[in-house]
């Protein structure tokens, strides 16, 4: 039975008997082995690749793990209103968990830059949605200012309860594999999640649940890569809207995760991201939103450089959000498009490419 991350990992989280648990049964997401993707990456012979598919959370992204705790703690302290800035998924999660708790929710979004699925979620869950004339970084500044001077609870990942909840994904990976992987790859935007995973892996090792920690491999989009370039980016640009962030709030946490783990943070172009996005969906049947393809593209780049050497190793990849969040991008990127035909047998057969079908039929005839 899915009980949600607070009940599953209570001993590792800052909750007491007095904390009202606001949950949508988040977490417990699948860890899917991906041999066909490993072959596409060019590491099929020696790397086992596992996808932590966070798109399977209740609102379709990992943000639910942090939000169940942030909203539970907000209710515990008597808050009535929560607020966040968002590239989309934080607002979807905040709106859903606030609705479940009976709290009011205000979200600030960069105008015109939020994927359709995410926007629809914030609206249908009843949040007050404001589209600001600026990017995520400006929106977060406004939220920090307003929540600092009003009795409104901030639920962005600068809220430490968000990080605490999100670290449970690392616990689940270790619980499933029996130990930590050799490498953990993930997209990096505001950098809360890489901070959270690293915290989770370290805590599990300290608790004796894992014998080691993985090398953390973070990937940013080339047009929004402040951690790689070493300075904030004033107008970040990438089609991966979830990581279109120029000045990550958890900058120090990301650098610590990289350096303490012996890992790296690198960047990939939008072209590489889109190629990996389509490859993931077509080789493994796993549909994740574009930001999730950044680590996939990053692994391919590292493999081409010989980064992984020849020793067998295990790599886990966080797919942070579901592909259905951004249907426009999928339709624009897919190698195929819908074709219209008359509703007759001949028209349907004439329109089909039978070249893939005939060899199979020939084999059957033998
Ligand atoms: C929020 C988000 C990210 C970035 O996570 P950070 O904690 O901001 O680094 C990546 N992918 C998706 C789908 C997201 O929703």
State the main characteristics.
binds pyridoxal-5'-phosphate, alpha/beta, 4-stranded parallel sheet, 6-stranded mixed sheet, single chain
Main-sheet strand order equals 1-2-10-7-8-9
- Enumerate the distinct ligands: pyridoxal-5'-phosphate
The oligomeric state is single chain
Largest sheet: number of strands, sense, barrel closure: 6 strands, mixed
Helix content: 40-55%
What structural category do the secondary elements indicate?
A: alpha/beta
The rounded Rg comes to: 21 Å
Please count the helical segments: 16
Q: Which ranges are low-confidence, i.e. pLDDT below 50, for 5 or more consecutive residues?
A: none
H/E series, N to C? Answer: HEHEHEHEHEHEHHEHEHHEHHEHHH
What best-fitting shape do the alpha-carbon axes yield? Answer: globular
End-to-end C-alpha gap: 48 Å
By DSSP, the count of extended strands is 10
Description:
- This protein is α/β, with parallel strands linked by helices and 366 residues long.
- It has helices at residues 5-8, 35-41, 63-76, 89-101, 116-124, 136-149, 160-166, 168-177, 192-206, 226-229, 251-261, 270-284, 293-304, 327-333, 345-351, 358-365; strands at 31-33, 47-53, 81-85, 104-110, 128-132, 153-154, 183-187, 215-221, 264-268, 313-319.
- A six-stranded mixed sheet has the order 1-2-10-7-8-9, with helices on both faces. A four-stranded parallel sheet has the order 5-4-3-6.
- Strand 4, helix 5 (116-124) and strand 5 form a beta-alpha-beta unit.
- Helix 3 runs parallel beside helix 4 and helix 3 (63-76) crosses helix 7.
- It is globular, with a radius of gyration of 21 Å.
- The mean pLDDT is 95.
């Amino acid at each position: 039975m899915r009980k949600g991350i607070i009940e599953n990992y209570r001993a590792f989280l800052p909750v007491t008997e007095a904390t009202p648990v606001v949950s949508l049964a988040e977490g417990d997401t699948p860890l899917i082995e991906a041999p066909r993707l490993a072959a596409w990456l060019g590491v099929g012979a020696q790397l086992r690749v596992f996808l932590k598919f966070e798109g399977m959370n209740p609102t379709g992204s990992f943000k639910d793990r942090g939000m169940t705790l942030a909203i539970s703690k907000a209710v515990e302290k008597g808050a009535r209103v929560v607020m966040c800035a968002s590239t989309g998924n934080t607002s979807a999660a905040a709106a859903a968990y606030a609705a479940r708790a009976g709290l009011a929710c205000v979200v600030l979004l960069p105008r015109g830059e939020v994927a359709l699925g995410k926007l629809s979620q914030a609206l249908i869950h009843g949040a007050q949605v404001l589209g600001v004339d600026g990017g995520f970084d400006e929106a977060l500044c406004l939220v920090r200012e307003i929540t600092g001077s009003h009795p409104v609870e901030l639920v962005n990942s600068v809220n430490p309860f968000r990080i605490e909840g999100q670290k449970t994904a690392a616990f689940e990976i270790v619980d499933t594999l029996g130990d930590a992987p050799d490498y953990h790859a993930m997209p990096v935007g505001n950098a809360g999640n890489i901070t959270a995973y690293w915290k989770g892996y370290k805590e599990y090792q300290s608790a004796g649940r894992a014998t080691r920690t993985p090398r953390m491999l973070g990937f940013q989009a080339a047009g929004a890569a402040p951690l790689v370039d070493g300075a904030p980016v004033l107008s970040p640009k990438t089609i991966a809207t979830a990581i279109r962030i120029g000045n990550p709030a958890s900058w120090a946490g990301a650098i610590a995760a990289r350096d303490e783990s012996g890992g790296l943070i690198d960047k990939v172009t939008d072209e590489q991201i889109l190629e990996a996005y389509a490859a993931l969906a077509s080789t493994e049947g796993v549909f994740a939103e574009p930001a999730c393809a950044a680590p996939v593209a990053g692994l391919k780049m590292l493999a081409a450089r010989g980064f992984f050497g020849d020793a067998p190793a295990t790599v886990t990849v966080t797919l942070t959000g579901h592909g259905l969040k951004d249907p426009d991008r999928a339709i624009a990127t897919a190698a195929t498009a819908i074709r219209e035909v008359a509703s007759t047998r001949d028209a349907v057969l004439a329109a089909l490419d039978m070249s893939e079908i005939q060899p199979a039929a020939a084999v059957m005839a033998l």
